[in-house]
Every structure is written in structure tokens, then in C-alpha cells.
Write a structure and sequence with these properties.
homodimer; 340 residues
Amino acid sequence: MLKELLTWMTPGWPLAFMAVGVLALGLAAATQTADPLPSWNDTAAKKSIVEFITKVTAAGSPDFVPAAERIAVFDNDGTLWSERPVAFQAFFTLDRVKALSPQHPEWKEKEPFASLLKGDLKAAFAGGEPAVLEVLMATHAGMTTDEFSKIVQDWITTARHPKTGRLYTEMVYQPMRELLAYLRVNGFKTFIVSGGGIEFMRPWAEKVYGIPPEQVVGSSIKTKYEIRGGRPVLVRLSEMNFLDDQAGKPVGINTHIGRRPIAAFGNSDGDQQMLQWTAAGGGARFLCLIHHTDAEREWAYDNTSSIGSLDKALEEAKARAWTVVSMKDDWKRVFPFDSK
Amino acid sequence: MLKELLTWMTPGWPLAFMAVGVLALGLAAATQTADPLPSWNDTAAKKSIVEFITKVTAAGSPDFVPAAERIAVFDNDGTLWSERPVAFQAFFTLDRVKALSPQHPEWKEKEPFASLLKGDLKAAFAGGEPAVLEVLMATHAGMTTDEFSKIVQDWITTARHPKTGRLYTEMVYQPMRELLAYLRVNGFKTFIVSGGGIEFMRPWAEKVYGIPPEQVVGSSIKTKYEIRGGRPVLVRLSEMNFLDDQAGKPVGINTHIGRRPIAAFGNSDGDQQMLQWTAAGGGARFLCLIHHTDAEREWAYDNTSSIGSLDKALEEAKARAWTVVSMKDDWKRVFPFDSK
């Protein structure tokens, strides 16, 4: 990368500009004596992470990867924050149905809205995908991107989880936040690659995870450029644009990132293809599944679960010796608010 | 940004990690005494650029913009490199038709391929958009993303421009490369937002412009994840995914970047909406059109041109006092190979 930069710079270009980057790398290396992962137990999982990061960043290592190619991708629901009893975006959607219901008196009689307003999610979504899409479009489309961003911002800073009573952004995994920071300090770019809505995550991902909007990949609906009252806006249309899940994740990675990650973190079968795609590149790779094994501090579930089902991906992880993190055994602390 | 990072870091997190960023900014500021834009004449255009960058980066400035929000977007064809006599991707396409023609004996008789093989682009594309799409799909789809990347790489390092005899990557504008580097040294993230193919630009944009694949936004065809011979691949399908031009540019910016740029550079009516979208944000903004006024060193064209037509956008630029760069008057040097 540095070499490539040098090749196109004019001879007169001050070299000091580039020294900045070199110096930054040196300092980062010097500070790595403190434990960067204090919320992880000293188990094999933590060891495998530290070993991987060390071998791809150490100068002269046979596995060295230039900084520009250090791309790490993370699923969000169940990998960076909880997803129980339903993905948190479902709570947002339900709250939007409630908030919008006064403008839609017909929803009292009309499914799937009638069941939703009674709090019966099971009945509401008995109609499968068409019912889900109808509710999604009624709550996520029809406004401008700026308006939607504000709606998400207002919700995420006030809505609370029904079981813990916490803000949803407090229910993020502290070990994973430390891991994100540890990767970045080692020159990695960290991306979210989630089945959740890209515009649902962007308003808070930077503050909560240190991941800027341009490094958030997710599902989306179509938008349209318009001039409204002399002012350009992007209007959110009632039409799916992209579903960033399962086989869609490698597609999303290619569209947004354009190069293959060297590390991927997921927790469900929806992440299997993302891990396969990451694993298939040449050179050192780190593939990791977060296994929800802690019924006491979080939730315990895998192959029998309807949300975050982990079955085929776990089999592949065992067969190919990917790292499987047991939340119960490998994490000293789960949430930032946990006492230890 | 720094404050936000601090709020979610555990107290035990080594502060030295963050000091790196602060130090880097300090050093960058100290080195800005040398002229960062040596290929620009000392005219109003250069002055407006330097003034803008200074006012959004100087600590205490009323127009100060945090580094994370310093997003600058650049059209490619006609803004970062030439686009005459046709957009360079058209030469790539033509060369692909020639290379593939032995496998397609029927093309000798079949339009638009027959005319293309005779070098008659005008006749070939008399059929309009359907003809263009047919040729695009015949040359850009049907292979994996890795295979296509290799095809582009091979072409871009060997094919030469019919008039200048130069590699296409030599026909980039030296003043714009200096501007890209100058912006980055001041904490900006620089993005390409082009009507050209995203996968056509990515294989060389990092080397030529210092812009990594994840900061390239462009037009695309759909891809599909498959396992071929036990190996995951993304196959390029014969179906348009997204057209990143005109009103598509703000959509592409929102999809890929997720926040509004504070600076935008274009050269044609295809860039007008991107500039409008950028201009509509609050705070300091820099809007700029590159005007092709130099028939001697490059080409001179604007509103009467079929390629890179600059008409409505130029009117708006005059009305709203956007910066218009005259290549003839404002650039000391056009291409890196120019003598002065």
C-alpha cells in the first residue's frame, strides 16, 4: 500500500505526510502490552484471536497482511448485540405500528396489523413473508431518509428491552466491543454485515460500536431522489432493494467492500455463507461463531431456535476448525452493565 | 468522534491507543507549509479549495467539521481521468467484443456486434439502450467476480488510448490526484461516485488514485453466490443492479456512504444531482465542476457534447456560485506526463 502510494506521488510531495501513517503504526504496536480484551476469559478462543491478529500484523511474519487488506466483518443481531426474544428491529417495527395506528384506524380490523396491535406476533406473522413485508413497508417506507434516521434515533435513545429494562444499545456485548477496538488499533477496518436494515443501524452504530455509516452493510429498501419544496430529498419507497442475509451476505460484502475480508464473525446459519466466502481467500483467515450458551447472563440457544438458528454453520465450524466462542465459558462479562 | 469513542471505552482502555490519532493530526498540520497543489495555477479556483479545506479543519473555526464527517465525492470520467473520444470503459468493452468474437462466430452477422467488430460505434449503438445493454452483458457478465477483476487488470495494464498512445491510467488528471491526497491528509475520506462500472474501477483505483475498493461507488450488475467445485464464487449475472448516474448518484451515495458529503466534484450534467445533494446539507460545503476548456492539452467541450455534456449543471453552478475549474486556466499541468 505504502509502495503503491509512493509510485504515483510526484517527487515534490512532502514525504512527511506519509511518515504520519508509519509513526502511527509504530505507536500502536508499542502500546499493545496492556490486555486489549479484558472481558474475555483466558481460554482458547481469546488465544486464537490474539494469535491471528499478531501473525497478520507482525512485520516479517509469513502471514503478514498489508493494512489496506485487513477487513473484518461482523454480523450484528446475536453477534454484536442480543436478539432475544426477537431481533430488536422487530420491537422498533412494533412500536412504529403502535405510533402510526391513530392515523390508520383500519388497522384495528386488518391483519397483520390487528394482531400486532394486540401484541400477538405469532398470529400477525402466520401469513409468512408477505405479512412481514407489508408491516415493514408500512413502518419503514414513505418518509425521507433524513426523517427515517430521526425516527430511529428517537427510538433507540428511549425504547427499552421488555426483559432487562435496558436501552437496546446497552445490550451490546462488551467482549465484542473490545475486539472491534483491538482490531482497529491493529489497522483493521471493521464492518457490520447484517440482515438488519442498513438505515436502522447507521444512526447509532458509530457511537455504540465505533463503526461509521460507510462501514455498515445491511438490508435495504429502494430510495428515490426528488426535489421537495426546492430541497433535494431521498424518499424511501415500498420496495425491497437488497436482502443482506445468507447467500446475500457475500453479495453485500462484494458490493460495499469490494474485497474479501480476512476475518468474519457470526452466530447463526444466516452467517454461514459470509464465513465460507471469507474462508475461501488465500492467506491467513479467522472465522468465528458466537455460540449462545449462557442462559443466566444472556440466552442459550442454537439449532432448535427459530431466531438465530445455529445448526449447519456450527457443523461446518467443527469440521473446519473455525473458532467457536462459548459465551458462558469464554466471556468474563457479557454486557457493559455486568458487574465483572 | 473522539468524545464518542471515549464514552464507550472501558476505563481500563489504554489512552495511548487514541493518542495516535491526535498525534497524526498534529503532524499533518505541521507539514502543510509546502504547496500541496503544485499542478494548480494560483487562481481563484485553487484559492477556493485551500480556503474551504482550511476552514473545515482548523480547530476553533466556526465551519469546523469533525474528521468522521469529512466526506468528499468525485465523479470519475471527465473528473479524475479523460473521457474522450468515448468513456474509457467503452474501449474496454470493444476490446472484449474483439477478444470474445472467435467464440461467437454469429457476431459477424449479428447487430450490434457486427458493427462493433467493424469499428463503427455509431451504427452499433443506433439501437439505443437495448443495444448498449446487450453488449455490456455479453462482455461484463457470465464470469465470476474474481475472473472479471483479472480481465480488467490485464486490460488496464496493457491497453492504450487511440490518440495519445498512453495507458488509460496515465490519462488521469495530476491536479486532481494532488487534490485527493491533499484532502486525505486533512482527514477526508475520498470516494469515487461514477456512472462507470464499480467492478471496472476497483481493480486499479487504489493504485492510481489512492482510493480503496470500499470507497468506490459505481454502476453494477447483479451477482449470485454459488459453490463451484467446492469453492464459493460470486457469478456476474446478465441483469442490471444499479445505475449510478444523474438522480442515481445521491442514491448510490446514501447506499454506500450513508452520510452526506461536504464536498463534491463533477464535470457533467450527470453529476448535477450529486452536487445538489451535497449542497443541501447544513454547514460549509464545496461544490465544483471541472470544465473541459483545453483543446490543446486535453479536449474542449461542454453543452454541445454527446459525452460529458455540461449544460444545466453549469447554469446551476453559475447561479449558486459553485467553483468552476477551467482546465486551461486553472491547471498548470493536466496529465502526469505533461512536461510542466
